[in-house]
Design brief:
alpha+beta, 4-stranded antiparallel sheet, 8 strands, 21% strand
Amino acid sequence: MGGLTAAELAGIRGRLEAFVDDLFASLPRADQRARGQCYLRGLMLDGRRKSIEPMAQRLGEVHYQALHHFVAASPWDWRPVRRRLAEVLCGALSPTAWVVDDTGFPKDGSCSVGVQRQYSGTLGKTANCQLGVSVNAVTEHASCPLDWRLFLPERWDQEAMVTRRAACHLPEGVHHRPKWQLVLDMLDELAMAAGEQACVELIWRRGSRGLQRGRFLALRVRPAGVIPRRLARAADEELPVRWLLAEWPVGQAKPTKYWLSNLPETTPLVDLVRLARLRWRVEQDYRELKGALGLDHFEGRGWVGWHHHVTLVSVAHGFLTLERLRSPNLAASA
């Protein structure tokens, strides 16, 4: 669905205002806090497009330019808002696990910060897009993104991109940070050495979709890399032992998914699998964040605007998550 109806939004407005007063307490000016609340209502209100201009038209209470300035250029700091969101949601959810995932933000042009043709798993293809990485608090019944980072491709560090960096107001200290593909390759070779005979088939969840089955391999390993080795040498200790969990479907030549865990050695395999498979909730979050709350509808190009937008979308999602826990019927409409 595209969001809440005007009547549904009016019915929860009092709680939304209290939530916003708490989450946006760090914003120094009353007009900024008012714009923030307005933007959240625009994100949650039913509508196909959640970019600023159509939201302002649907709301009918704020000028497009005022809303645009609040998101794209206003100097308010998004970090305290995210910290408070994490405190509130973690207190309410008591997360079972933390899930880190990334998602693509399709773009038409080449001027938006961090954009280039690159592969996005959520888009399922190579596309002209930005890539955002989120940290999500997850339980069996609810989840919410709490923090974000924008992936900056290596080409954005090149001298030829100086003008474009300046146009996007990209801070001088922000540069490309590589993904750890070499670590993933190493995990492949650990799992492949154990072989299919070490796999266990089990039922890891009984839910609305019936029995969830899978074939899994769990190994005790010592993850190695430059930084872990340095830390171990400095402390005169061995590299720590961790769980490597791999899902190896029947008929596949090798495992298809991997997880590392620092849970105790005595942790049952079914508990490892149940926690690892909580990622399905984050995939569901991304669908709602994009389909109902306009996560990838922001049309601004700048660094600050991107961070403001994803923060506001996360706050809206957090509020709706708490509302669903309070009133499960809201899930059908949001």
